[in-house]
C-alpha cells in the first residue's frame, strides 16, 4: 500500500474550480488556442486528447499560469489566475511539463524537495511537514530506493517518475500532468494512473494530456478532445469516443470496442483515411 492510501497521511485538500473563459493562447502573434470555454470538474480526472500540435501543452501551461493568455482568462475559483501572485498560484496548481530539464547532478530527492518550494517563505522554512510530503511522494512514485541517485544517471521512465513525484510533493489542489506515462512500462503506467486516481479521490482536480485514447477512456472521468486549438468534443469518455471522433481527430478509421473488464471504450485503429 502506498502512503498516499494510508488514512490521515495526506492533508485535506480544498477543492479547486478551474475554468477558462474565451481563452486565446499563442506565440508571437500566432494563435494556437481559440476562444476556449472549459470547466475542469473538481475531484475528477480529465484527459485532454488530440493530434500533435493542436495546443494541449500550450493549454496546460496556461492553466498553470506559466503561459499568459492573448485574450480571455483562466479562472481559479472564479478569480482571474493572472491576478494571483506566482507563489500563490504554485501552492494551488502543480504542473508536470511535457519536457522538463534539471541541472546536472541533481538527485531525485533534491528534485522532489524542490516541489515543496512554494510552501516556504521568509517565515516558513523547511519543516517536518515538508519532509513527510517528500517521503509520501517518493513512496507513491516507487522511488524510495533510487532517491539519492542523480537524475542524469536514470532511465527515461525513472526520470519521468521523479518529475511526477516532484509534482505530487507539491500537494496542490490542481494537478496538471502532460503525457505523464509516455516513457513508462505497463506496470509503472498503471501505478501512475492509480496514483492519479488517488489524487482525484482526495478531492484534487487532475488534468492529464494523453495520446492513448483507450487509456484515456479507462482512467479519466471526463474527456476533452481538441483539434486545431478548439474543443471538438467533451464529456464522459463512453459518450465522446466514437469512430467519427477518431476520424476527425487523427484521420484514422477505427473500430471502437468495450473493454471487457471496465466497459470503457477501446479504440482499435484500422487504417488512415483514404488508404487501403
Ligand atoms: N515556444 C513556442 N514558440 C512558438 N510556437 C510554439 C511554441 N510552443 C509550441 N508552439 C506551437 O504551438 C502549437 C501548439 O503546440 P503544443 O505544444 O501546445 O501542441 P501539443 O498539442 O501539446 O502537441 P504534442 O502532442 O506534439 O505535444 C504548435 O503548432 C507548436 O508548433
Ligand atoms: Mg504537447
Automatic annotation (TrEMBL):
UniProt keyword Transmembrane, yes or no: no
TM helices/strands, residue ranges: none
Membrane topology: Peripheral membrane protein
A GO BP annotation: iron ion transport
Domain called ABC transporter: residue spans: 13-253
Transferase among keywords: no
Pfam families, per database record: ABC_tran
Domain of life (superkingdom): Bacteria
GO cellular component term, pick one: plasma membrane
Protein keywords: ATP-binding, Cell membrane, Ion transport, Iron, Iron transport, Membrane, Nucleotide-binding, Transport
InterPro entries, per the entry: AAA+_ATPase (IPR003593), ABC_transporter-like_ATP-bd (IPR003439), ABC_transporter-like_CS (IPR017871), P-loop_NTPase (IPR027417), Siderophore_ABC-ATPase (IPR051535)
Any one Gene Ontology molecular-function term assigned to this protein's record: ATP hydrolysis activity
Record's subcellular location: Cell membrane
UniProt-recorded name of the protein: Iron complex transport system ATP-binding protein
Lineage: Bacteria, Bacillati, Actinomycetota, Actinomycetes, Geodermatophilales
Amino acid at each position: 500500500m502506498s502512503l498516499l492510501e494510508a488514512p490521515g497521511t495526506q492533508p485535506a485538500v480544498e477543492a479547486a474550480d478551474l475554468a477558462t473563459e474565451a481563452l486565446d493562447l499563442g506565440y508571437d502573434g500566432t494563435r494556437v488556442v481559440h476562444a476556449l470555454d472549459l470547466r475542469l470538474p473538481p475531484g475528477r480526472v480529465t484527459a485532454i486528447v488530440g493530434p500533435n500540435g493542436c495546443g494541449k501543452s500550450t493549454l496546460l501551461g496556461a492553466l498553470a499560469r506559466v503561459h499568459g493568455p492573448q485574450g480571455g482568462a483562466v479562472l481559479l475559483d472564479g478569480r482571474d489566475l493572472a491576478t494571483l501572485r506566482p507563489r500563490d498560484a504554485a501552492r494551488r496548481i502543480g504542473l508536470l511539463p511535457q519536457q522538463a530539464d534539471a541541472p546536472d547532478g541533481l538527485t531525485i530527492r533534491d528534485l522532489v524537495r524542490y516541489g515543496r518550494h512554494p510552501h516556504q517563505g521568509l517565515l516558513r522554512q523547511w519543516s517536518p511537514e515538508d519532509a513527510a510530503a517528500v517521503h509520501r511522494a517518493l513512496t507513491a512514485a516507487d522511488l524510495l530506493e533510487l532517491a539519492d541517485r542523480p537524475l542524469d544517471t536514470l532511465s527515461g521512465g525513472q526520470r519521468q517518475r521523479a518529475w511526477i513525484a516532484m509534482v505530487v510533493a507539491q500537494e496542490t489542489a490542481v494537478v496538471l500532468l502532460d503525457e505523464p506515462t509516455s516513457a513508462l512500462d505497463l506496470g509503472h503506467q498503471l501505478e501512475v494512473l492509480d496514483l492519479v486516481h488517488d489524487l482525484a479521490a482526495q478531492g484534487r482536480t487532475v488534468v492529464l494530456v494523453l495520446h492513448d485514447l483507450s487509456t484515456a477512456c479507462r482512467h479519466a472521468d471526463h474527456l476533452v478532445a481538441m483539434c486545431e486549438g478548439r474543443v471538438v468534443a467533451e464529456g464522459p469518455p463512453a459518450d465522446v469516443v466514437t469512430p467519427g471522433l477518431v476520424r476527425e481527430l487523427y484521420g484514422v478509421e477505427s473500430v471502437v470496442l468495450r473493454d471487457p473488464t471496465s466497459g470503457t471504450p477501446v479504440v482499435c485503429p484500422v487504417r488512415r483515411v483514404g488508404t487501403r
